Amino acid sequence: MSALPAKPGLRLSVSEWHSNNHQLSATAEHERLISSAIRQDGRSLRNETNCKTTWDESDTRRRLSDRVWDVSRWKEALETCAQKVDEEMEALTLSKEQTEQALAATVTPLEGRRGYELVTDPVDEQLKKEVELIGRVQQVLQQHIDKAFEQLCVLQEVRHQLTADLQNKMDALDIDMSCLSLTIKSPQISLKTNPTRIPSGSSTPQEWVQFSQYNIARAQEAMQVSQQMREDMSLTRAQVGNELETQRRATEFALRKRNHHEEQARDELEWQIKNTEGEMTEMESDIHGLDADLQAKTASLKLAHTRLENRTNRPGMDLCRDEVQHGLVGEVHQLETTIMALKQKLSEAQNSLQKMKLHHARMLQDLSRKQEALSLEQRSMNTRSHLTSASCTSKTPVLLVPLTNSSGRSNLQLLAQ
């Protein structure tokens, strides 16, 4: 059995066939037009966005370059200011040490005299004036030293603030220079989470400028105060030096005058001691003579007494008061008078010798004190001359240990690139 033929489909008319063809062509042209418009818009967008991106990136680089220049300019200003602060700190330290040396260069007043040498003389008056002057000078100089120390602390604090600001500037420069060196081909670029956020603690450009301006202005003000302080200390040292020099000369003049008077008194005392010793020697010799004469007269009296006593033994009428008897009696009276006079003179001589010995001892003691006072005054004058020469020598600049900033490094080594 043969198969039945397929059922014929729905047939279209020729007009429908032409209409379909026209529709296909129209749709194709329409899609092509849309595609062409989209392509043109895409090309325009690409060109526009490429230009915008290139411009924005170039503008960002320009802004970064300007920012680097601004930060570098402020960094240089801070470096210059910090260098001046370091120099001012060294100058103030030197002035402070010179003031301390002037404070230490004081003269010790003359002391140690004893006995009648401890008198209220012009030297003592001048020394008292010198002590009072030195006391006032020490108070004034100590006040300057204390103020200089406080100002050094202020400069140290200012220097620390400048160092911190400089460190921030250098860190910011490193970051901005690193950002300036980045390109789209740099391997370290990547997408970040919320990069457009405003970090906490951010400042405005005005606040940023004002901060560095304040640090520099504060440093300049501290340096002006320090410079004025150094001028005041220099002027005070000069005035103090003039006053101390004037008083020193007055004291030394009084010392020399007193020394001259004491030398005269010593020479006079030595002459008196020498003459007294000579007189004592002669007196001792005369006492020996008086004693010898007294012994001789006593022997003569014994002889006369013995003769008179022996003659009393004459017998009978031979016990006569003859010329011999009268002569012996007269001789006894004369010898007794002579012996009494010699004893009195010997006692006077011995008393006089004893007084001269006592006075001689007092003169020797006084001479010892005068020599001690002269030696003391000579040592004082030598000491004063040494102190004067030392104070003149100390006017030369002294070597200082370099000051260090808050980071422990001298000058601006911290700022080295």
TrEMBL record:
GO biological process assignments: cilium assembly; cilium movement involved in cell motility
Keyword Nucleus (UniProt): no
Localization (cell): Cytoplasm, Cytoskeleton, Cilium axoneme
InterPro entries listed in its UniProt record: Tektin-like (IPR048256), Tektins (IPR000435)
Coiled-coil region(s): 259-293, 332-359
Signal peptide from the UniProt entry: none
One Pfam family it belongs to: Tektin
Principal subcellular localisation of the protein: cytoplasm
Cellular compartments per GO CC: axoneme; microtubule cytoskeleton; nucleus
Transmembrane spans: none
Record keywords, A-Z: Cell projection, Cilium, Coiled coil, Cytoplasm, Flagellum
Key word Endoplasmic reticulum present: no
Family per similarity comment: Belongs to the tektin family.
Protein name as it appears in the record: Tektin
Organism encoding this protein: Lates calcarifer
